[in-house]
Amino acid sequence: MQISCSILSSDNREASVQKLNNTNVDYLHIDVMDGKFVKNTQFPISEIKKMLSLTTKKADIHLMVENPLAYIKELRDQNISYITIHRELDTDLYPIIDEIKKLNYQVGLSIKPDTSVASLIPYLKDIDLILVMSVEPGYGKQIFLPRTINKLNELNRLRTKYPHLIVEVDGGINDTNIKKLAKAKVDISVVGSYITNNDDYDLCINKLKGTK
Ligand code: DX5
Ligand code: ZN
């Protein structure tokens, strides 16, 4: 299991990024919110760039915004693995997908808890990663929604046809419920407050990564 750490709920994000540099964590997860797609507003472009300049980890950017292109265009030549946009956007997703590919990053598509797995089918051949939200996007420190597991099982059936797909889950994950995610063949878990609310990041991350 790979771990992508969200610093959304950290009291001191710069210190958290630096602390994560000395751990085994796989990615730095940056949650970008515009106050429109979700109510919260977080990580203006200047702060994203600051975090990217501090981290030695590969970045995993989660765009919860109505106009992803405005952000993506500012993110060229960075140590970014994935840029993920939302399936629920009321616009043609292909120009956005193409722009992410043009910058040589991998493309993620995310679904909120009430969005079906079936709605992803037309895009599966053109994307690299699926981000299944296990809480309503907008805030950290929420409770993991158990119905997420049914979606993962459904996705695994689809994955037999699209074996290249990476599956990531985001929201409310800790050292207990991650066991169910490992069983459901999740590749990357996004974990925020369980790590950043703890003094010993290493201990938390090693526990999470060791889950079978
Ligand atoms: C929610 C964000 C998540 C969240 C994860 O909108 O996308 O990445 O910050 O934090 P925890 O682990 O605290 O739920
Ligand atoms: Zn996120």
Identify the notable features of this structure and list them briefly:
alpha/beta; binds D-xylitol-5-phosphate; 8 helices; 212 residues; globular
Can you tell me about this structure?
This protein is an alpha/beta fold. It has a single domain, classed as Aldolase class I (TIM Barrel). Helix content is 30%, strand content 23%. It contains eight helices and nine strands. It has an eight-stranded parallel beta barrel with strand order 1-2-4-5-6-7-8-9, surrounded by four helices. Strand 8 (166-170), helix 6 (178-183) and strand 9 form a beta-alpha-beta unit. The longest helix is centred in the C-terminal third of the chain and has 12 residues, at 148-159. 40% of the residues are buried. The model has no long low-confidence stretch (mean pLDDT 97). The structure holds D-xylitol-5-phosphate and zinc ion. Zinc ion binds at residues 6, 29, 31, 62, 170, 190.
Q: Could you describe the largest sheet, including whether it forms a barrel? A: 8 strands, parallel, barrel
Small molecules bound: D-xylitol-5-phosphate, zinc ion
Helix and strand string, N-terminal first? EHEEHEHEHEEHEHEHH
Unreliable segments of 5+ consecutive residues? none
Assign the CATH architecture: Alpha-Beta Barrel
Q: Please, what is the CATH homologous superfamily?
A: Aldolase class I
How many alpha or pi helices? 8
Shape: globular
Domains (count): 1
Specify Rg, calculated over alpha carbons: 16 Å
- Can you list the strand order of the major beta sheet? 1-2-4-5-6-7-8-9
Total beta-strand segments? 9
Question: Average pLDDT across residues?
Answer: 97
For the termini, the CA-CA separation is 8 Å
